[in-house]
Design goal:
Helix content is 42%, strand content 11%. The chain is α/β, with parallel strands linked by helices and 671 residues long. The structure holds thiamine diphosphate and magnesium ion.
């Protein structure tokens, strides 16, 4: 047992480093970091199991930080275990430093998730816990049962609505591999918490099926006891509510207490207040970036303990692998991040099917061929057709993770964040479905998946106004334009941050899914129709969908006009072409499942498909901006400029001009 005095000294060391980082950067958040230091220090010095020599060890415990603004606390802690240098701490928030203002996922450095948008980070942790349970059940590797997901949440995260979803999921699935610490310091950015929350948080989490412990979160002995108890809980997730002191140890310039003060939330302590604080915590304001000798010893001792713990765990893994070589090889493949091998010839599509049904046909094959895939739906599996997957497996349940379907309930953001957490954990390929219009509830998560370069598959069906009988609330209009913006935004590796595919018919849907599965380093969005769609003309070379835009079979040489669209509008163009040809007009039809992918092709390919100077007509059930960039000054786009209306879809097609006749009329007008 470590001496409590040394633990307290280490926590003060973290406080000094965190406050000094912010002071040096002249920006950041010292208060929360100082309050949470005791918990993170006890966790890392006594409980968190990881392999210092093998940071991406699959069986490691994981620490998910929800309040990214407490980054200085995490970076300082990681400096104590040697993952960051003291010089790097001094580069907080600077260009090119590994210590950005809010942490960005970097597992080699001990950072499991990007955090910043409050609420998402802890939900990623819940997703990771699901992945660990899934892997335990699907590989039999005992290491996954020994893995604990530690989560750190603050007042902001608890207030975010997503926390209700995350807590519900963890409760219903009985995620006893979750230990979440709530840093309850009664202070937030602009007010005291009492002004905006008076809930009984412990009762709330208990009602959602959690075991809850309430402690003084600045008391190392109580923290230790609570972690022990939380780890021992069976069949439920555990929450430790730690009452902490914001800005613990902070003094104002006159030497009076600067604790429990909103001002320390997001600004340097400043000048004399900073100097007095460092002195109060036992540091030297002229030389604050040091690790105390006894703290070095504490962590050297932990490193030794970890060697023994990891050796034992890895020996267990090796024994399992020796007995189960096939499972072990599969597990290695799953964690490699490589695209799974899929025999796409096994997918059979029905002619003229809705692309959501075509997606179901693919999913039923993936369920059989990709044993590490988890598919989710937000209570729409029979509509978004993720039931194609579900029919081949069964749902994950408390105590039984042998299935591969995640019933998320009606909670799209929660579902998306859980899927992101699964991807962060590694070893699984997550996909999730709902109606396209509800992608609005998921955008914050898509953005995080894109930033973290995670290959989550988003399946969005009911892609346009043609869900008209449900009325305008269910009809996506501007959603495609929004999600396609993510195709224009590059990630830090210079790749389109998201791959967005809206296939034109059943066969093209198979191609879209192939591209989604082969995309291992960014999220993919699949936008699919509710209604049936006529097949593209015979002989169409669907493989070309991988170029983002291609010439549909049956197009004329030397066209007078190029018609372009994605999704079901392509078949409307085909119908319109028949009318145009009667007038002797030569037509090329281009299917554009992904503008982003098309723009990533060599310029000469782009020019060959959509040559400048040839008249162009675009048809989109979304905002015209979806195609305006490709049509340019060469023509016009017929799209939707208003919210939809309540009516059967064939009526809406007529009223809104999505007919062969209107294609004919609009094209004739530009020729
Ligand atoms: C989704 C989201 N909304 C708003 C913010 C801005 N913000 C950052 S921290 C914070 C207050 C957080 O209070 P708390 O979690 O109690 O942290 P503490 O002040 O205790 O450090 C806010 C509003 C954010 N980061 N994410
Ligand atoms: Mg707070």
């Amino acid at each position: 047992m470590n001496d409590i005095k040394v633990l307290n000294h280490a926590a003060d060391n973290i406080r000094i480093l965190a406050a000094s980082m912010v002071e040096k950067a002249k920006s950041g958040h010292p208060g929360g970091a100082m309050g949470g230091a005791d918990f993170i220090n006890v966790l890392y010095s006594e409980y968190l199991n990881y392999d210092p020599a093998d940071p991406c060890w699959v069986g490691r415990d994981r620490f998910f930080l929800d309040p990214g603004h407490m980054a200085p606390m995490l970076y300082s802690q990681l400096a104590l275990i040697g993952k960051f240098s003291l010089e790097e701490l001094q580069q907080l928030r600077q260009w090119g430093s590994p210590t950005p203002g809010h942490p960005e996922a970097d597992p080699k450095r001990g950072i499991e998730n990007t955090s910043g948008p409050l609420g998402q980070g802890h939900t990623f942790g819940i997703g990771a816990a699901i992945a660990a349970k899934f892997l335990a059940a699907h590989t039999g590797n005992p290491t996954f049962d020994k893995e604990t997901i530690y989560i750190y949440i603050s007042d902001g995260g608890v207030q975010e609505e997503i926390s209700q979803g995350a807590a519900r999921i963890a409760g219903i699935l009985g995620l006893d591999n979750v230990v979440m610490f709530y840093d309850s310091n009664d202070i937030q950015l602009s007010t005291e918490c009492a002004e905006v929350m008076n809930e009984d948080t412990a009762a709330k989490y208990r009602a959602l099926g959690w075991e809850v412990f309430e402690i003084n979160g600045n008391d190392a002995a109580q923290i230790r006891k609570a972690i022990e108890a939380a780890k021992a809980v069976k069949g439920k997730p555990a929450l430790i509510i730690g009452k902490t002191v914001m800005g613990k140890g902070a003094l104002k310039e006159d030497g009076s207490s600067y604790e429990r003060n909103c001002k320390t939330h997001g600004a340097p302590l400043g000048g004399d207040a900073y100097r007095k604080t460092v002195a109060n915590l036992g540091g030297d304001a002229d030389n604050p970036f040091v690790i105390f000798d006894d703290v070095k010893e504490l962590y050297a001792k932990r490193a030794e303990e970890l060697k023994a713990i990891v050796a034992e765990r890895k020996a267990e893994e090796a024994a399992w692998a020796a007995k189960n070589p096939e499972c072990a090889a599969a597990q290695a493949e799953w964690f490699s991040g490589k695209a799974p091998k899929v025999d796409w010839t096994k997918v059979t599509q029905k002619s003229g099917d809705a692309t959501r049904n075509a997606s179901a046909a693919v999913l039923s094959v993936l369920a059989e061929q990709v044993p590490n895939m988890i598919c989710a739906s937000a209570d729409l599996s029979n509509s978004d057709k993720t039931d194609g997957f579900l029919k081949k497996t069964h749902a994950l349940k408390a105590g039984d993770f042998s299935g591969a379907f995640f019933q998320a309930g009606v909670a799209e953001l929660t579902m998306a964040c859980c899927c992101i957490g699964m991807a962060l954990h590694g070893g699984v390929i997550p996909a999730c479905g709902t109606f396209f219009v509800f992608s609005d509830y998921m955008k914050p998560a898509v953005r995080m998946a894109a930033l973290m370069e995670l290959p989550v598959k988003f399946i969005w069906t009911h892609d346009a106004f043609r869900v008209g009988e449900d009325g305008p609330t269910h009809e996506p209009v501007e959603q495609e334009a929004q999600i396609r913006l993510m195709e224009k935004l590059k990630n830090h590796h210079g790749k389109n941050s998201t791959l967005v595919l809206r296939p034109a018919d059943a066969q093209e849907t198979t191609e879209a899914w192939r591209l989604a599965m082969e995309n291992t380093d960014s999220p993919t969005a699949l936008i699919l129709s509710r209604q049936n769609i006529a097949d593209l003309p015979a002989g169409n070379d669907y493989k070309q969908a991988e170029k983002g835009a291609y010439i549909v079979a049956g197009s004329d040489e030397n066209p007078d006009v190029i018609l372009l669209a994605s999704g079901s509008e392509v078949s409307t163009l085909v119908a319109g072409t028949e009318l145009l040809r009667k007038d002797g007009v030569k037509v090329r039809i281009v299917s554009v499942p992904s503008e982003g992918l098309f723009r990533s092709q060599p310029k000469d390919y782009q020019q060959a498909i959509l040559p400048c100077g040839v008249k162009k007509f675009g048809l989109t059930a979304g905002l015209p901006v979806n195609l305006e960039g490709l049509v340019g000054a060469d023509g016009c786009v017929w799209g939707l400029n208003s919210f939809g209306f309540s009516a059967p879809y064939k009526v809406l097609d007529e009223k809104l001009g999505f007919t062969a006749e209107n294609v004919y009329k609009q094209v004739k007008a530009i020729l």
